[in-house]
Structures are given as structure tokens and as C-alpha cells.
Design goal:
Layout (H helix, E strand, L loop, with lengths): L3 E4 L9 H9 L5 E7 L11 H10 L3 E7 L7 H7 L3 E5 L6 H10 L3 E6 L17 E5 L13 H16 L4 E5 L4 H10 L3 E4 L1 H4 L4 H9 L3
Parallel strand pairs: 1-8, 2-3, 3-4, 4-5, 5-6, 6-7, 7-8
Helix pairs in contact: 2-3
Bound molecules: D-xylitol-5-phosphate (DX5) and zinc ion (ZN).
């Protein structure tokens, strides 16, 4: 499968969201990565439903929504209404993870589970066959622009192995500190989707940067 690129809108210019969304529409990006932070599960607050709906109105690609919030079950239908196609929750935020995954899929979205850097891949063994996506965090969630944690590469290899052993159809996405160098390591390890925020939006030519990530193999 071709590598997918999901630029993180968290690093866009919020005073020019429509302009940046249109830039992504006309780039080779595959998905829009939407980071939702609640100031409880993570020590930062990003944005909520009005902003997500505004992005959805202009975006022409898959909406890949990453929830860094406590108790995500309360809002599953609201994220569907705001335009989410893929809804990813954190393992660490879901005491009834299996139920949460079922609820996301019943609402008509693909379901992902994110693992913080300290959370082992092996904890997904009993849900991997139900998942559409595994999101390996390569930074501690909460902020863009952080340094890549190298152990994420090992976790991609472990996730790939788990997927092969169980016949799961889940995609492996990696989020945090992705650039050309770390992206290459992740692709070689078996990543299917790369998220990139600051690397794309801080570059002088974001569309070319997305193309450069897309060309990694
Ligand atoms: C981190 C977010 C990431 C973030 C990535 O909590 O989940 O999606 O925006 O930003 P970069 O690519 O700058 O590390
Ligand atoms: Zn994210």
C-alpha cells in the first residue's frame, strides 16, 4: 500500500484556516489530521466542534480526528456530525475500550486507538482485530514541535508483527516529531500513515514538503 500522509492542522495559521485547508486540498496529502485536546487528558487545549466543522466544510479529504480527551465516549456522535471519518481515542483514556471501538464503528466511522510512548503494543492483543487504525505516539501528546522518541520505531515493528499474527486489517499511523529522517525510519519499520505538523507548516514550501514525505520508501 502507498504511504499515506496526514498533515496536522494544529500547526496551521488559525487566522487563515481556509487558506491552509485549501493548500492541503491541492497538495498530495491524503488525510487531514485533527488534534483535539481538552486540558485534562493532556496539558493543553486545542479546539472543538465549531472549528472542526469549519475545517470539514472546506476539506476535500478524509478527516482523521485524534482525540486527546478524557471520556471520549460522551462525544462520539458529535464528532461524526462535525465530519470525522476516522476517530482515534487514547488507550489510556478508555476503561471500556472495546465498547468505545464498537460505538465509533456503529456511528459510521473507522476506529483507531492511540498509544502513549509508555504504553506497550502488547496491550492491544485483545482488540487488534476490531481496529481500523493503531496510532503510535512518537512524542508525549499535547504539543506540536516536540522531539521524536526513537522507541516508536520499535513499536511500529511490534505492531506490524501483531497485525500479521492476527490477520488484523489495521493501519499503523505514527504521530509526533516526523520529518524526512524519522519518517524514513518509520516507513522502513512498516508505518502506513505519517502525521506531520510543524515539519510541514514551518517549511517554506509545505506542498513540496508533503510530496517529499509521500515519496519516502
Ligand atoms: C501531538 C499531536 C500531533 C502534533 C504533531 O500531541 O497529536 O499530531 O500536532 O506535531 P509535530 O509533527 O510538530 O510533532
Ligand atoms: Zn495527533
Amino acid at each position: 500500500m502507498a504511504l499515506l500522509i496526514s498533515p496536522s492542522v494544529l500547526s496551521c495559521d488559525f487566522a487563515n484556516i481556509q487558506r491552509d485547508v485549501e493548500m492541503l486540498n491541492s497538495s498530495v496529502a491524503d488525510w487531514f489530521h485533527i488534534d483535539v485536546m481538552d486540558g485534562v487528558f493532556v496539558p493543553n487545549i486545542s479546539f472543538g466542534f465549531p472549528v472542526i466543522s469549519a475545517i470539514t466544510r472546506h476539506a476535500t479529504k478524509t478527516m482523521d480526528v485524534h482525540l486527546m480527551i478524557a471520556n471520549p465516549d460522551r462525544y462520539i456522535e458529535d464528532f461524526k456530525k462535525a465530519g470525522a471519518d476516522i476517530l482515534t481515542v487514547h488507550y489510556e483514556a478508555c476503561p471500556h475500550l472495546h465498547r468505545t471501538i464498537q460505538a465509533i464503528q456503529a456511528a459510521g466511522m473507522r476506529a483507531g486507538v492511540a498509544l502513549n510512548p509508555h504504553t506497550p503494543v502488547s496491550l492491544l492483543e485483545d482488540v487488534i482485530q476490531d481496529l481500523d487504525l493503531v496510532l503510535i505516539m512518537s512524542v508525549n501528546p499535547g504539543f506540536g514541535g516536540q522531539k521524536f522518541i526513537k522507541n516508536a520505531v520499535n513499536k511500529v515493528v511490534q505492531t506490524k508483527d501483531l497485525i500479521h499474527r492476527t490477520g488484523s486489517k489495521a493501519l499503523i499511523e505514527v504521530d509526533g516529531g516526523v520529518n524526512i529522517e524519522t519518517g524514513l525510519q518509520l516507513v522502513k519499520a512498516g508505518a502506513d500513515v505519517l502525521v506531520a505538523g510543524s515539519f510541514v507548516f514551518n517549511s517554506t514550501n509545505p506542498q513540496q514538503t508533503i510530496q517529499d514525505l509521500k515519496n519516502l520508501k
